[in-house]
Amino acid sequence: MKLLKYFIDHNEHIDLENTLFSGQSFMWNKMSCSTPYYYRIFDNNFLLISQINDGIIEVQCTSNKLGGLSVADFIKSHLTLDIEIENVFRTGFEERYPDVWALLHRYLSVRVMRQDPFETIITFMCAQGIGMGMIRRQVSMITERYGDELEVMAEPGQLRGYTFPSPSVLATADLNELARCTNNNRIRATNIIRMARSFESGSMAFACVQSGECPLDTLRETLCAHGGIGLKIADCIALFGLGRLDAFPIDTHVRQYLREWFGIESASRSLTERNYRYLQEEARNMLGEEYAGYAGHILFHCWRKEIRKMTTY
User: Fold this and answer.
1) HSE-up of 248 (CA within 13 Å, CB side)?
2) Is the dihedral of CA 27, 192, 45, 211 positive or negative?
3) Confidence of residue 126 (pLDDT cuts 50, 70, 90)
4) What domains does the chain contain, in order, with CATH numbers?
5) What percent of the chain clears pLDDT 90, i.e. is strictly above it?
6) Strands (E), the chain
């Protein structure tokens, strides 16, 4: 496989490392060299990206198209470089929360990515109640067992990777074999097989296609009707896999920053469905409706890095 090289100019700030390893994707790998390269496989094609400077991304790909788009257009869409980061936080946020902004300012170059719906659903179904290292391990085992292996010779050296398995492959997976990839969690493996079958039948795939045209509550209910998906996972899927930048996932870290940074007392209470929805409304009132999830993810990453001092993704 031969790599084609592109240089993509853009006007938006982006920090590739903090974007790719901020807990929204578990498929990227890093190759450290004089200029770090990040790589994965999209559409049966190797994709390598590196940051030349704040305004230029180098892209190497084994095709001149990804997802039906030119490589440049795909990258700009995938990394949401079509969204002006100045619009993500509501006007006046900086003045109202100066201490938060002082911490947050260096993370405004974290972008929320537009990702493949099926891949996002399955990877976040692996993300219930475990750390990011374990999530990445499960996803890696699934791709190695059920994906196709590809190799390419790149400037940094020989690279090997695996495609993400298709719905048809996971729909016919043996439960015992898949469970070995999900930390021996047979319930999780069963839910993944059922979700893949829903995609294979067309019902879930159609719901994803229509996801931008329905109310967020309706989309969440559609996702939560499947085993293994609760409110938080549904919102993660909506935000990272379905382009719903208004979806606001809430986990322990989000509850903590809502309480400590913004004084929302209900964030210290147990996360019942009623309280989850209440906290979402409070967050939207504070952050604005359109980009609540985008802003929330930047806050989430900042909290983990600056306050919790966490380094694993």
Assistant:
1) 24
2) negative
3) very high
4) 1-82 (3.30.310)
5) 84
6) 4-9, 29-31, 37-42, 45-53, 56-61, 65-66, 69-70, 149-154, 157-162
- The DSSP output letter for 41 is E
Contacts of 149 (CB under 8 A, 6+ apart): 160, 161, 162
The per-residue DSSP string of 117-144 comes to HHHHHHHHHT-TTS-HHHHHHHHHHHHH
Rounded Cα distance between 248 and 108, Å, is: 17
Q: How far apart are CA 256 and CA 252, in angstroms?
A: 6
Residue 250 to residues 48, 273, 275, 276: CA-CA distances in angstroms? 31, 11, 10, 7
Contact by Cβ (8 Å): 42, 67? yes
The contacts of residue 94 (CB under 8 Å, 6+ apart) are 101
pLDDT score at 233? 96
Q: What is the mean pLDDT of residues 28-41?
A: 88
